[in-house]
Amino acid sequence: MLVAIGEFISNKLTNFFYMPKKNAPLELKAGILLVSEPFLDDPSFHRSVILLCEHSSSHSFGLVLNQRQEIVLDSYMDEKMMEEVPIYLGGPVDPTIMQFVHRRPDLIPEGLELGEGIFWSGDFERAIELVVAGELGFDEIKFFIGYSGWGAGQLEREVKSNAWMLHPAKADYVFDEPSTQLWRKVLFDKGGDYRVLSTYPDDPNLN
What we know:
Elements (H helix, E strand, L loop, with lengths): L4 H6 L21 E5 L12 E7 L3 E6 L3 E5 L13 E4 L3 E10 L9 E4 L2 E3 L3 H9 L8 E11 L2 H7 L3 E5 L2 H6 L5 H9 L2 H5 L10
Parallel strand pairs: 5-9
Antiparallel strand pairs: 1-2, 1-10, 2-3, 3-9, 4-5, 6-8, 6-9, 7-8
């Protein structure tokens, strides 16, 4: 039987029933999702799902998939006639940088494949042209400002401390799942005790 949520928090995620330790077989690499634990203190990553784009011994880099912003892309692309283009906050680092992921390598060259049906970056001008022309839908491309970054060994330490759970990325998660449901969806799909985590309310006092 699960112990009280207050005890989970006070134990700093060490209780097995609170943070199931089933992600060991997965390794940190490009194309992995980082799923935040339910009550991560950092407001920049509250219930976030991050697509890891790069991981090496010197640094790690990813994009938060489920923090859609109120602003739209035409605010950043004054020379283009673009309206109502959704944009996401990829993380707290350098919000002046814009990036994108897509699922159409046949239309956008030079992208880096992160997993089946998921490509990071590529010919930005071509991507914008396709969006403006209506030839690329928003279930095929996602724009981000800012990014999430870690220094050498930092992400490994955070994973070891159970701040993040790992799950393979799928194109459906990136492009099709509503951002407000993504965190719960990924945990539910992991199955087992993770499904219990997916039901936790934002406020632990409500449990």
